[in-house]
Every structure is written in C-alpha cells, then in structure tokens.
Design goal:
Blueprint: H1 5-19, E1 27-28, H2 46-54, E2 60-63, H3 75-85, E3 90-93, E4 123-126, H4 136-152, H5 158-166, H6 180-200
Parallel strand pairs: 1-2, 2-3, 3-4
Helix pairs in contact: 1-2, 4-5, 4-6
Protein name: OGA GlcNAcase
Domain GH84: 1-150
InterPro entries: GH (IPR017853), Glycosyl_Hydrolase_84 (IPR051822), O-GlcNAcase_cat (IPR011496)
Length: 204
C-alpha cells in the first residue's frame, strides 16, 4: 500500500492525530531516533526526510541525540535534526536510563548538554533510573539546568518569556551560571534534608 516505511508511519500517525482532534501534545518516535541509527547521517536520511515532509506540523518528534544514550548534546546536531524534520525535536534523554543494565545506578548531575540548548528544543523528557529513590539528584539537577536555561534563552512564545522573567532572580538562573558540580552539591544537601525529614516522621 505504501512505497516506504516512513510514508506508512507518517500516514498512520497523521490519521490518529486527526482522529484525536489534534491534541496539543502528540509525540511520534521515529525508527531512526538518533544519529547512530541514521544512514548515512540525519540530514541525508531518506527516512527522516520523508518523516519531516509527511508528518503534520503539530506532531512532535522524539530524538535521543548522537546515540541511544548520549553523553553530549550539541546545538549543531539539533539544528541539523530540526532542518530535516522541519520542526524542533523533543529530546528523549536517556542519560540516566539503566533498564539495559540493572547493575548500574546513575547518581551524578545533569551534564553534557550545551548552554543555550533549550532554544533548540521543542521539549525534553528524562528517562530515569528504574529505582525511584535514585532519581532525586538527576531530577533536581535537571531542574537547576532548566532554570538556568530559562534565564538565558529568549523564547518566542509569551508564556516562556513570562516564566523566564519570573525565575530571573532565582539562584542559577543567569546565563552560563549552571555548573554540574554546584548543582550536584545543592541536590545532595536537599536530598539529605529530605531523608532526615522522612526519618523523623512517625512510624519510620
């Protein structure tokens, strides 16, 4: 029925999206969702070019970066992906994911993401450790990074500008102020306080 996998996927996704009334959040994860899965590159991938052309503009497209688990994300790569997909990507960040190796737990700060990256994104999803309690530092430091990004990038949308202004006086909200080590130390202090609070509750 379809000349290619990409045409088939886009057709089905578009139909479901329209049937649901074109919701404000509708995400599509392509078969080629990182650079290492693209042949020969994101900008020259026939699959991604078709997805970008055929997928309705209101549908968000998920991207994990250079690899499935990306240690670094650069603005240049995201610009390349935006060009081929005809929309800013939504990063599905697997930096802390450990479902592929349950012997490992990742407790470090959110890092490896270039300053000013948020202006290149349509959104960001964090895939955390499977162990719930182990995600305090990852989520806390992601929040610090996000606050810093809001303070340093100018959003074209009115709501984003208001949020940035509201956080303008917050610690770590100025451009270039995010440092993983400082964010880690702040998160650890808050985590200890949370542990102590829970320990003091009756019945604990």
């Amino acid at each position: 029925v379809f000349p290619s996998l990409a045409k088939a996927q886009a057709s089905v996704a578009n139909e479901v999206y329209q049937e649901l009334g074109q919701p404000s959040v509708f995400l599509f994860c392509p078969t080629e969702y990182c650079s290492s899965l693209c042949s020969p590159s994101p900008s020259q991938s026939c699959y991604l070019l078709t997805i970008g052309q055929e997928l309705l503009p209101g549908i968000g497209v998920i991207w994990t970066g250079p690899k499935v688990v990306s240690q670094e994300l650069s603005a240049a790569l995201l610009e390349e992906v935006e060009g081929v997909l005809r929309r800013r990507p939504i990063i599905w960040d697997n930096l802390y994911a450990n479902d592929y190796d349950c012997r490992r737990v990742f407790l470090g700060p959110y890092t490896g993401r270039a300053p000013g990256l948020m202006a290149k994104l349509h959104g960001l999803l964090l895939n955390p450790n499977c162990e719930l309690q182990a995600n305090f530092v990852p989520i806390h430091t992601l929040g610090s990074w996000f606050r810093s990004e809001l303070g340093s990038c100018a959003h074209p949308d009115h709501a984003g500008t208001e949020t940035a202004e509201a956080l303008g006086d917050s610690p770590g909200s100025q451009e270039g102020s995010y440092t993983p080590q400082d964010a880690l130390e702040t998160a650890l202090r808050d985590w200890v306080a949370e542990i102590q609070r829970q320990a003091s509750e009756a019945g604990r």
